[in-house]
Design goal:
By secondary structure, the chain is of the alpha/beta class. Helices cover 34% and strands 15% of the residues. α1 packs antiparallel against α2, α4 runs parallel beside α5 and α8 packs across α9.
């Protein structure tokens, strides 16, 4: 009786599956091949990462309800899975003061507001206008396109039932007067998703840490090879502040936040 070999479910295994089953099921080849190549990319990106990875399903748990609003998706948005992860984190920890750097079109701010307590406030900061020249620090390649995007000004949280919980700030995160804007509040949850250069993501982290409440949580977006400045800073920060990467996403979270309170 011939020995059967089990094809691994890793990226290379999925590519092999696509090739083996192509003649029998040609319609499935492109889907399987695309998934396999995507997984190869993801596995190679995080192969050398010092951050431990937490399964998204484990992080979400099974005892928290998450509100998600269908507002469409485009480049620059958090993914549906990322919105679920953020929503679960907010619903579980019930933060009253939430700060986001990098509003873009307001999709994440909307989901922070939807899942936070009724008396919570979501403060979200974006550069004014669409001119990258207002940035005081170096930008990553690719940042300018998101800054110049004028469609983002149609904020997704506007005209919703939770719009009153959201306050839009405009300014450069490297120079913005957080102390005055927060009016004595301490930050329970901060989401850092602004400019992607090492200089900016480090500055954003260090500046918000000054206002973080005891037990406050930091979350970063775009831990991905296309944003090497973000990867470099978070890998470096992990040596002094334990972090975890949520599998299947570009989210990095304080390690303590991965454990339900």
């Amino acid at each position: 009786m011939p020995t059967r070999c089990r094809i691994p479910s890793t990226g290379p295994g999925k590519v092999l599956q696509a090739l083996l089953h192509g003649a029998r099921r040609p319609g499935s080849v492109l889907r399987t091949l695309k998934t396999g190549l995507r997984d190869i990319y993801r596995e190679s990106v995080f192969a050398g990462s010092p951050l431990p990875e937490v399964d998204a399903g484990t992080f979400l748990g099974d005892e928290v309800e998450v509100a998600v609003r269908s507002v469409g998706s485009r480049a620059g948005n958090t993914s549906l899975l990322e919105q679920l992860v953020l929503g679960a984190l907010v619903a579980r920890r019930q933060p009253r003061t939430l700060v986001e750097i990098g509003t873009f079109d307001g999709t994440t701010a909307l989901h922070l507001a939807l899942n936070s307590p009724p008396d919570a406030r979501v403060f979200t900061l974006d550069l004014p206008g669409s001119d990258a020249a207002v940035a005081s620090r170096p930008l990553a390649a690719g940042d300018a396109a998101y800054i110049a995007d004028t469609d983002k000004l149609q904020r997704k949280y506007a005209d919703t039932a939770v719009a009153g919980k959201v306050t839009q700030w405009l300014g450069d995160s490297a120079t913005f007067d957080f102390a005055t804007a927060l009016q004595g509040r301490r930050i329970d949850l901060a989401f850092i998703d602004g400019a992607h250069s090492y200089e900016y993501v480090r500055s954003d982290t260090e500046r918000l840490c000054e206002f973080l409440a005891d037990g406050g949580v930091l979350v970063w977006h775009d831990y991905a090879a296309v944003w090497p400045g973000v990867v470099r800073w978070l890998d470096e920060l992990h040596a002094s502040r334990p972090l975890v990467h949520i599998a299947g996403t570009a989210l990095v979270v304080d390690a303590a936040a991965a454990k339900p309170r």
